[in-house]
Structures are given as C-alpha cells and as structure tokens.
Amino acid sequence: MKMTLLGTGTSMGVPMLGCSCAVCLSSDPRNRRLRPSAWIEVGDRTLLIDTGIDFRQQALRYGIRRLDAILFTHSHADHILGLDDLRPFNQMQKQPVPCYGREDCLQEIRITFRYAFPEKHSHDLPHMQLIPVEGPFSVFGLDILPVPVVHGSLSILGYRLGSMAYLTDVSAIPEESFALLEGLSLLVLGALRHKPHRKHFTVEQAVAAAQRIGARETYFTHMCHHLDHQETDRSLPPGIHLAYDGLSLEV
Ligand SMILES: [Zn+2]
Ligand SMILES: [Zn+2]
Ligand SMILES: [Zn+2]
User: Fold this and answer.
1) What is the pTM of this model?
2) Cys-Cys link to 130, which of 41, 43, 105, 106 (CB 3.0-4.6 A)?
3) Which of 30, 35, 38 is nearest to 64 (CA)?
C-alpha cells in the first residue's frame, strides 16, 4: 500500500496569495504546499482521502488515471471543492465514484454541489455515490477504520487503513480514538503552526499526540506559511517529520 501526499498545505495553500514572508517567497519546493489530500494505491486500485481545491492540478502532477473511491474527512472547502473534476473519471470508468464519509459531511456535499444531484443524472455532471459510514467498512476488500477526531467545534473523521492512519484537521483526539491508533507504522497528522489555533493542533500539540500514539514514523501535514520546511523539520524529535507535497510513503 502506497500513500502519496498530494497536498500538505492549510486551506489557503502556501505560498499564500499576496504574502511576501520568507516561506511564501522561499525557493525550497518543500515550502510550496497545495491543499491537503492523500492518494492511496493498493494493487491496481486507487482511492483518495479528500478532494481539495487543487485536485485537478494534483491529479495531473502525480498521474492519477483511475479513481475507485474517495474517503471524506469533513466538508470544509479545502477538502471537497475539487469534486467537480470527478467528471473525467466518471466518463472513463462509466460509473459513479463511491464517496464515503459521515452523514453530516455527505449532506454538506449534497448542498455545496446541488447541481450534481438532479432528479435524473446527466453524463456531464460529476457523479458521486454517497455512502455514509459510522463504523469500520471495506472498499474493494480493503478494511477501513474511521477514526473520530475533534476539529474545533466539529466532530470529523480520520481514517486508518491497515497500519497507516491519516488524521488531517485535528484540534483534539478523543480518548476512544487513541485505542484505534495502536500499532501504527505510519501516521499522517495535521500540525498548522506554532501559535495556538482553535481548530488545529500546533506543532507542539501534534508532537505530543504523535508521541502518545507512537507510530513508527509520523509525518505532519496541513501546514501554514509560518512553518519553514527545513527549519521546522530539523526541530522535530526522531521519527517525526514534516511532510511535503509529493511525498510517497509505503507500508
Ligand atoms: Zn483543512
Ligand atoms: Zn507567507
Ligand atoms: Zn477543516
């Protein structure tokens, strides 16, 4: 199983429009972060976790030619607004793409993409099959475990697939969810910046959570322009790293 991080930036991306800070002007490609999403390849099947605003660009950059399912963490714009670009996959695969998520997240998708849910479906619209999930489920034989996490005032999902887990927008991890994260080889976890934020872990909070979870390797994602890649990555404890766009991780 291979996970490629298609985007490791926060909702506004890095560089942030109009900003001339050192990170936004940096020539280090690891300081250029598209909106957050992960691409998982298992044999000849592929699935995405979230389809952000940059989905089309990411699919071109990383050569995504097939899409068997999407797992949604939540319905914030930086995680769903790429859905219109499902159309070529619908046309090539001649079927809707199964989209999994909490019922409230799927309901928001139905509202945001109202035009894609007409009475009678037309081939020029993105075609999603919305499948609400509560507990563990399986997609083409792959067992998937939803992991509830807190994101500000929302309860949203992260996902565990085998010994890898992806928890992007997190401000707290409920006690019961720590139990779902035992024995991981790979954890991808959100870490926004150093300054506290109501909806996201700081780097320091993410380090504390990562150390408690104790995955063999942890990579941080969903970073804003306050974090320079090299400087931040160097400051992290062993086994914890800053991810960057295009990073591929195998389990
Ligand atoms: Zn986000
Ligand atoms: Zn900046
Ligand atoms: Zn969010």
Assistant:
1) 0.97
2) 106
3) 38
Ligand with the closest atom to the CA of 151: 3
Taking alpha carbons only, the member of 89, 93, 90 closest to residue 122 is: 90
Residue with tokens 């979870």: 213
Q: Are the beta carbons of 171 and 180 closer than 8 angstroms?
A: no
The per-residue pLDDT for range 25-65, each reduced to its tens digit, is 999 999 999 999 999 999 999 999 999 999 999 999 999 99
Segment 101-157, tens digit of pLDDT = 999 999 999 999 999 999 999 989 999 999 999 999 999 999 999 999 999 999 999
At 28, which CATH number? 3.60.15.10
- Host domain of residue 232: 2-250
C-beta separation of 169 from 78 below 8 A: no
- In this structure, which residues have their CB less than 5 angstroms from ion ligand 2? 16, 19, 21, 24, 225
The number of domains in the chain is: 1
**H or E element at residue 150:** strand 142-151
